[in-house]
Amino acid sequence: MAALDHYSPRSLAAPAALVLLATVLSLACSRPAACDRCGTIVFAATGEPSSLLPPLVQETVGRDIGDQIFERLADLSAGGAPIDVSAYRPRLAVRWEPVDSLTWRFHLRPGARWSDGKPVTAEDVRFSFDAFADSAIDAAARAYVEGLKVTAQDSATVLIHFKHWYPEELYDATYHVRILPEHVWGPIPRNQWAADTIVGHLIGSGPFRLARWVRGQSVTLESDSTAAAKPASHRLVWRFSPDPDAALNLVLGHEADLLESVGTPDRVERIRTDSTLTAMPYPSAAYGFLGFRIGNAGAKAVSPVASRAVRRALVMATDRPGIARAMFGPETKAPPGPMSQLLWIWDDRTAVLPYDTVAAARELDAAGWKTAADGSRTRMGHPLALDILVPATSPTRKRIAEILQERWRRLGIKVTVTGVDFPVFQQRLAKGQFDSYIGAYLDEPSPRGLADQWTRAGWGALNFGRYENKTFDSLFARAEATAEPAAAHAAWREALDTLNSDPPAIFLYAPTNVAAVSRRLGGVRIDPYSWASGATGWSAGAEGSTGPHP
């Protein structure tokens, strides 16, 4: 994502609703013998994954690579709502049906095999769910699957049983768990999985198999002869770089074909001036915000932003769309609540406080914060002052804080900006040692993760500001329990209307990423939740092939 250097993901095991984007037209390689790179796609990646085994994956690049090797039972289709049972598409399972309100039956793909030639069975599925739920592994998706009962009805049929009914049963049965081969991992004690570095153990049922992993340099995947469908390209290579600049240089030097996110507008312009590359925009799965400390937690003093009036004034004194576009480019939006552009509950009709500095001043006046002769605001002899905490390693967040500092100064508010190392930043958030902070969260397709961020249930999780609004919590619970998509959409909008009127944060930006794509590639479509998941349909032509801009 453009200039976003730290995320607080709800779950890396939870990425999916595909968002279809522009297509780079394919040009065939007319003379294969003269085309050394035909059929090979090279990705530039910042950093190297610590593991490719799905329950141990922590980094998004590890997930991107692993999703070429391992399969889910089903995939959520482009823009689909997790509660919409018609939005799922076959993957390892070819069909499924509800047995009753608590049980789903899945039928595995006939002839499905692991890349070592052994058949995939229902016992492999049972084993995989058990592994993801095991505390010895502590997978990111553990909380979503540890209550499920998975049984093999026969060698090709699986039953998944839930303790209680809820609208996202099919989502939890398919989205989080990638299926693992029991014959490989079953004999290995699970507390030893993380230390296992044998490449030959990374066997999947997906379209590619792991061919080589040169630590510190690259991973190479090759199309799997046992796969149900052949990929358009036979080889995928991830080259690991120590930082974003090095990754960008791989693409600009034509040593790599794709880069997930180019970054700031000046870096995007470098891609656009290269006639062999295409700058491909797509919505990011992240959103950024300025969060307030409302509850006292471990802090010694009550922050002025504990006051609803002060928070509302600060929101109305902030030009959210202007800041979003200035920092991340013209396609970035100011979100109508805590969500990225991808989340299915996004609704431009959601009620938000307006950008109105006059109304902001009235809010402060009514709350007793009067303007002194020097323009500053005080109440009962105390100045209206607050600090914005940011990670020192994030120039983007620091710049946003400085913009807010200047805008709010005009309103009579004294604002300081404190930058600290990222580990200290996280520690201070956990201890409630801040007035406000600038953060960013990654979305998953389900909005239920918002509970950890903005409801009372999130105290001790990601609700660092200790925000509590009982009306919002009640509306949130009702929306979460609504099964019909249109009715659920309306319920989520009502909940967000309430949240925005009593703001726990200023929801600043929902960025649009820009990927760098070589023009020798064809059929490129990007899934923002797992951007390389569609690579099976991407073709790689001759070096120097060019096509029209999308």
Query: How much of the polypeptide forms β-strand, as a percent range?
Result: 15-25%
Quick one: overall form?
globular
Enumerate the spans where pLDDT stays under 50 for 5 or more consecutive residues.
Answer: 1-34, 544-550
| Order of the strands making up the biggest sheet | 8-9-10-1-11-21-12
SSE class: alpha+beta
**Level of helix content?**
25-40%
Largest sheet: 7 strands, mixed
Give the helix tally: 15
Instruction: Calculate Rg over CA atoms.
Output: 25 Å
Cα end-to-end separation: 21 Å
What is the number of beta strands? 23
Would you tell me the overall average pLDDT?
A: 90
Describe this structure in words.
It is a single chain. This protein is an alpha+beta fold and 550 residues long. Helix content is 25%, strand content 21%. It contains 15 helices and 23 strands. Strands 8-9-10-1-11-21-12 form a seven-stranded mixed sheet, sandwiched between helices. A five-stranded mixed sheet has the order 18-17-19-13-20. β14 and β15 (377-379) form a beta hairpin. α8 packs antiparallel against α10 (357-366). The two termini are 21 Å apart. Residues 1-34 and 544-550 have low confidence and may be disordered.
